[in-house]
Structure formats: C-alpha cells, structure tokens
Design brief:
Largest sheet: 3 strands, antiparallel
Number of helices: 11
Order of helices and strands: EEEEHHHEHEHHEEHEHEEHEEHHEEEE
Oligomer: single chain
Strand content: 15-25%
Distance between the termini: 90 Å
Number of strands: 17
Length: 604
Amino acid sequence: PAVKTNFPANSWPGYASESPKASFQIPLASNVVFLPKMTYRRTPTDGFVPLTGAFERTIGSTNFYIPQWSVRVKARLRFALVDDGTGRIVDYVNLADDNFQDLTEVLTQGGNNSVTYTPDGRNGSMWLTNRMYGRPANDVTTATFGIQNQIEACFNKITVDWKSALEEHPAGMSREEAIQFFKGQFIRGYQKASNTFHAPFQPFRNVYLVTSWQANDPLVHYMTGDLRDESGTQPRLVLDQFSSGAPTENLGRVNDRYEPWGRLRSGSAGALNSRYEMAVKDPVSTATVKRPEGRSDDWDFPTNRLPNIGWVGRIHRGTPWQTVYLKPQGYDPANWQRWTGNGVAMTNFGQLAASVPIPVNSVYADAYLSQPTNDWRLLDLFTTALNDNATRGQLSINQTNLAAWSAVLSGVIALTNFDVNGKPGLTPYVIAPAGVYNPRNTNTWTPVARIVNAINAARANTNAGRFIFPNQTFRRLGDILTVPELTIASPFLNTNVPPGDPNYALNDAAYERLPQQIAGLLKVDSVPRFVIYSFGQALKPALRAPFVTSGDFRGLCTNYQIMAETATRTVVRFEGVSPYQRGTPAATRVLHPVIESSNVLPLD
C-alpha cells in the first residue's frame, strides 16, 4: 500500500542534540500487514486459507508434502521537497529495492543438513527437507529429517530452544505434563491414552527480510547504494532475533551510518577506522568550527565560475563527505566498497574504454570506478582557458629543473597553520623563490626545493622493481598529485597537531591549496617535441694543400681552410601522436612535423 505524508513548510524546528527525537519527523512509523494469519493447505487450493485449526488429511495415505515457499519484498520510496512559492522541486529522490528469499531453504539455515540422519535440536534442524532412510525428495510418504527432529523434541530426547516454540499445550498442562502426555500415547495401558495427539514442541522461526536505508552524508542520498549498509553489521536476512536491535530502533535518532569527519559510526563498522581518514572524507578544522565533528554546514562550495582547473577540488564528488580528490593516497578497495554502499558487481565485455585498467571479459566491483584517486583525471578533461593562446607559457609537469618550478611556485599564496599569534588558524603565506641552500643538507632546503625534489622523486618511484611511471615520465596532468609535498606533506603546513585536537586548524582547502593555485599553470606533454642543433662550416682548400694523386679519391684535397661557420637551434613538435594509453600503443604511421621556432645562435 502507498503511504503519503506532507510536511508543511517551516514545521521542522531544527536539530537539537539535547532532544534528538523531537528533531526528526517520521512519515511512516507503523506496521503494514499484507498477509493475515492463515494456514497452508495442499489440497484442494495449494495455497493459504483462513486459519481453522483443523489438520489437513488425505484419507488412506500418509502425506509429508513439502511446499516450496518464497517471499519477495519490494520497497519503494519517493521523496519530493517542493518550494511552493516558486513551484520548483528543491530535492527529489526515487528509490526501489528488491529482497527475495527462498523460505524453504532459509528455514533450514543453521541446522544439521547432513546426508544421514542424526537427531539435532537446533532451530534450523526442525525444518530440514531431507527424507528419512535415504528416500528420494519426491517421496511424500516418508517423513523428513525436520519432522523426525520435531518428534524427538516432543519425546524430550534432544535439547531444543523452547523460545522458538509456540508452547500451546493442552488445557491445564505444563510443558513437562504435555511431554508425558505425548509419550503416553505410545505406551500400552497409559491412563490418559487418547486418539488425539498434542505436540508439546511446535517450532517456529522469525524470518526478517531487512531493507534499511540510511544516509551517511545528507547530501548523498539519490541512489539506493548511497543508503545501503555494506559493512555487514546489518544483514538483509535475519533469523530468529536481531543480535543488536532491529533497524526500526534507529528511527528518530541520528543515523547509525552518519559518519562525518571526527565521528565513527555506531556499531562494529567503526573497525574501518575512518574517523580521521582523509582518503574518504574531507578534513574539518576543529579550531574553526569549535566542535569535534564535522557537519554539512561546514561545506564551502564555489558559487561562481572556477578561476582555474584547480578549483574543481572544492566541488562535492558524490561520495560521502568528500569533494573532488586531489590528495595522493588511495583507499583499500574492499573498505571503499563498504564505505560507499556500492556492492554492485559488473562485467566488462568491452564496453569500458581500453584506457581503463580492467581486463575484458572480467567481473569487477563497480565501486572501483569511483575510487577517489580517479578524480585526478578530471584535470585532463576540463580547463578554464578561453582559448589555446591562454595556455601558452604553461610549465610541463615533467620539468626537472629547480629554476623552472621556482618560477611557477614563487609568489603563489599558500595557506599555513603555523601558530604565530597564539591563536590556531590559517593565514596566507607568499611562497618565496627557491633561494640558496645546501643540496647535501636537507635541513637547509627551502620549501620550493623540498617540493621540486619530491616531484622528481615521485617520477622515479618504483613498484616491484619497475617504474610506476614508464620512462620516469608523468603521462597525465593528474599524475602530479601523487606528490605528497603538494598536499598532505606540504612544507607550509604543521601536521604535528593531531585531528580532533581543539587547536587542529587544517581543513581540506588548506591541504589542497597548492594544486588549487598552480594546476592552471601546468601542462602534460602529450605532443613530443625535439630540439635540433645544427652546425655548419664554409671551407676552401688551403694554400699549397696536398691532393690525392691516385685511387678512388684521386684529386681530393686533404687540407681545408675555414672561411665561415654558423649554428642553429630548432624546436620541432610532431602532431598525430596519441596520448598515453595503458598497454602497448598502436603504431603511429603519419606524423605532422611543425617547426615552433628556429634561431641562428650568436657567436658567444
């Protein structure tokens, strides 16, 4: 059944930590019964009929038919936040989920489902469908392991969980008396013998199909995966009873999954240890917000056009508590899958681009494609340049010389949290040129020298003896973000104050300040360039120079006088070379050489 609830404008008082229940408005907090108490009958309906209490009998035969029961619960939710004044939709969510279970199989879970029968009192053993004496499954004249276990329980021969039994005993009888009454029907001369049997142990199992949707980040709630718990703390199927409380107990409270900066989620999922994990959520300055945890109110998104491509790091990336990621470290794939709630498995039958490092005809986790470090490629896809002329003078990220990098970094306004006035916070810092330092003494290195050394070291990094970047060359503009000194290890930041400390002044904007400021000044060389030096001389035979008088070189002068000489420098680029792709690239057969400059070198 559909349930519709409207909340009038201005009716929400806001969140108050001292009375959280009053802070939440719940549109539906009730039960919906879709199948009332009924009983299953094999004949003549082969379905559910109103509860009568009468046994189903087939006269003249024994019937141990096993019905194949299954249940499917489809949860659908449509949410709309409408501004009546303008007639516009402010927020809209349309969610659906499908939970299917084979009840005949589910009821046997936890039982002793062996090939041969062994009396067993566990809950799942009361519903086993294996036939006794090795009979085939379709032999409805032979009892099942489950029925035999129920009889053993009625005889009190096995230990059972009486909390999983109805205990509807004959009037005036206790459990023990009901067991003795049941046993007596098989004893000749029993005083209370009767042709009516009452089973003292009547098993039941509670089966919960759980669909629980909770947002981690309030801004990330548009897809079912954003709201699904993949941590394993809330399984989609629960038998008998909840180990840590039903999901409905969380209604009217802060979500268990709510995990901003500085907060661990409720339950054991905190084992992900993501309280201060910058790989999955943006850091928040405790000194600025004056509280130990972040909130949605702390976001500071750009509202106008971006000044340069580096500002893309200030835009929400669509995963919980995170803007576009410009930091170096990745995150464990399994934990990332749990963090995002995206448990979808995909197949690659060639629909993915060849540059995506996923083998063809393979199965992969869809969450892999949303890994934070994949954001680095955005720097190659977008630009704020109005035209090609606006990008002239950009520095190649494969530049190795200190002077060139000093020209880019000098004058850039960084942010620093080094305490200079007794109050923790962020202050602007103008980066000075590289200056003078001792290359052999790292303690004398200036900030620019440290950064340039780290850039060159990142290109030379290896993994299992092989260069991470082939030929020690960055292939994409985003590769520069692998350098920690540009973000989390910036020489302008004091990282000795731990997160959560009242004096912790760093936030995401401080960590990603350098990429934000200099990304528009950098480029990646996808077009190869060559510098060609040429040298030529004008010669004439020297006075009284000897000549070869015989052989193949007869008449050749062997001594010349230099009359003039010149040298040139020419820069040539070759267009038509494809950007770097993983694997072995296809051969390029047609190249277009373009002379960018050609100069005659001066005499000095």
